[in-house]
TrEMBL record:
Protein name: NAD(P)/FAD-dependent oxidoreductase
Stretches assigned to the Flavocytochrome c sulphide dehydrogenase flavin-binding domain: 379-433
Gene3D superfamilies: FAD/NAD(P)-binding domain (3.50.50.60), Flavocytochrome c sulphide dehydrogenase, flavin-binding domain (3.90.760.10)
Annotated ranges, domain FAD/NAD(P)-binding: 38-142
SUPFAM superfamilies documented for this protein: FAD/NAD(P)-binding domain (SSF51905), FAD/NAD-linked reductases, dimerisation (C-terminal) domain (SSF55424)
Signal peptide range: none
Cited InterPro entries: FAD/NAD-bd_sf, FAD/NAD-binding_dom, FAD/NAD-linked_Rdtase_dimer_sf, FCSD_central, FlavoCytC_S_DH_flav-bd, FlavoCytC_S_DH_flav-bd_sf, SQRD
Limits of the Sulfide dehydrogenase [flavocytochrome c] flavoprotein chain central domain: 177-274
Keywords: FAD, Flavoprotein
Amino acid sequence: MFRRDFFKFSMFSTIALNFNNLQANTSFNKNNNYLKTTIAICGAGFAGLSCVKRLKELKPNLDITLIEQNNSFSSCPFSNQWLTNISNISYEDLNFSYYNSINRYNYNFINEKVINIDKDKKLLYMSNNKILKYEYLILSTGIDYDYEKILKDNEKIKQCKFKAPAGLKPGSEHLALKKMIQNFKGGNFIISIPSGAYKCPPAPYERACLIAQYFKSNKIKAKVIVLDPREKPASKPNKFLNAFNTYYKDYINYKPYTNFKDIDFEKKEITFESFDMLELDYKTKKLSFEEANIIPPNKANKLIQLAKLETNNGFAKLQEPTFRSISSPYIYVVGDAQGQYPFPKSAQMANSCAYVLSEELISRLDNKTFDYKSNLPGNVCYSMISKTKAVSIMHEYSYKNDKLKVKAEVSNISKEVAQTAKAWYFGLTEDILG
């Protein structure tokens, strides 16, 4: 067995934890801004944290540096429940310090923004003017929004970000959405869903259900109007349509074959195209609103472009069947930024793919072969339908005739699934965050 000698640079002189704010003061040579690490991981979301955890479990002395611009972790899973005061989910249930993870798994942490990547020289450039040299790089940077695909006016894009936040990125967007929901007095609450791949396919439909539940429970005269370019919901379609028509018949208006076109915040009016089944053509229509949740098309985080990695439909292309970028054998892409495989952009899929990637990378470091086709990820995704009931979907993958196949299984809507969802969420966050 080939063993590599790993070098270790201590990135910390101190770690000061003040409330939710983690400060990592990194020690550098005053005359040298240049650092080295074996594995650099950009992005400390579900994928990045799962990678560092599994890599350290497999090889505890491995030199790993995790770079993250945020000083705390915020969760998108279960955020819809917090937005609508469902299931007693608190703000603390969604937000975590990185401190426990760093202590438990003993890795280097740099709380800075990566501003450029030179894939040929294997260099990361950070906002503090420091440079990190890596041997292998894992990009787990998530998504960015592509507002330019739906709005051409830069000023309107700025307005949309603040006045109709997408809510697929945790933090300020969730705070704004919660305020919108809690202060809602009546009228139309619009949720616009993008075409193409986006983060957490069932999230907008779950959000529609839970906002409707909030309106129903508080006796608010309101409609949740869902604009969807698809024929039916992108995930668990039959279950969501059933919920719309039974639980929330008077509160949710689901509009399939509908494309968002424009928004006027002064007139409080949305322009959209809707397919006319009689004339077999799209017709332009307008709709008044009190509040809106406009989700633009998604694409991979801009670091993918800065690293000059090849993309397809905005997401990173990979060398099949691996998680290695097609543009560099030393760069891996995992989580929501990848677009090579038909994997849902979910927390569990990010976690599962991170484990597979970690197994392969350790095998690579030990000069061993790894069979991706026999070590495939799996997925489970839970969606709350009401205060006490949820539905889940499981995805199982296999290779057949060199083609990736998926088998999906959807549960019934039940209280038991809701209980399982809670156990899954708190189990996963405890596992990677402590």
